[in-house]
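Lay summary

Proteins are chains of building blocks that fold into shapes. Our project writes down both the chain and a compact code for its shape. Here are two examples, one after the other.
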Amino acid sequence: MGTILVIEDDARIQKAVQRLFASEGYEIKSSNDGRQGLEIFRGSTPDAVVLDLMLPSMSGRELCKSMKQSSPDTPVVVLSAISEVADKVLLLELGADDYVTKPFSPRELLARVQAAIRRSRRSRPGPAAHFGDVQVDFAKMEVTKGGKKIALTAHEFKLLRFFLENAERVISREELLNEVWGYNFYPSTRTVDNQMLKLRQKLEIDPANPVHFCTVHGVGYRFVQSPQA
């Protein structure tokens, strides 16, 4: 089935999560410390990570950011007591693929992790892509525009990749939330609009008049790889 890395400092919860995934045939690696968890992650290739936010030596937020920078395709599902919308949006910015709030349903956690793994496996792209004067290197997680590096957050990169994989197709905000964010519950479709604004500002020649990241009024967005002259 694959390998799940569990990074959780509560021994009782860690054991419960280990039993849950082991019963489904997954190999389990685990840590109760942030820095140790990062070392295990870098030394292995887990199919997904279940991550607590409150950890010794390194916070879960820092850990999530580091893991996504080194391996953007590996799903990270946060398991935490967070409930505030602001915290959930921050996790999106750091690249988390989903979250489950404590106390949690084992079946829900299993379903969300497995869904994140499926999304990751079916959306892995080729090594590179380009549009206009933008070059995208998926392996290095790097984007250049006119030969200059452009800094994208892990989640902006994930959104860009989804558009490149679905070029010319009209995509609703709800589909983007479900397929890119991976959340069944989300604060607002404005989340998508805000991320689109940032992508346009970074990657369009004229963000106020985009030719690649186009709005389809009343529906959502369409990515145009090669606009008509």
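And here is the second example, written the same way.
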Amino acid sequence: MGLEWEQVIVHAADPASLGQWWAEALGWVVVYSSDDEYEIRPAPDRMPGLDFVRLDEAKKSKSRLHLDFRPDDQEAEVARLLAHGAQRVDIGQGEQSWVVLADPEGNEFCVLGQRSQ
């Protein structure tokens, strides 16, 4: 039995807008788009991807699942994402080596520091 991880589903009030924001933030490509769904991947044939699916219910609390990213330069990447429309958020993390940000719909994600050798 084989099992392949294909995508992470992200509920969104506006799938196309949020999906396009993430496509630009990550430099990924759009592989599917409709009124209710917007799927992006690192490359058309590369998985896993992110699939933004319409959910008319507003986000109510801290996300139970979030994405972590490890950039080459944390400070530069945080600045780039903030300029792209991300916001800093406090989810009770205190002083840490990572930075917690949220996308335009409030979904939290972390920009990690340098990997320890």
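What can we say about the second shape? The chain has two domains: 7-56, 63-117.
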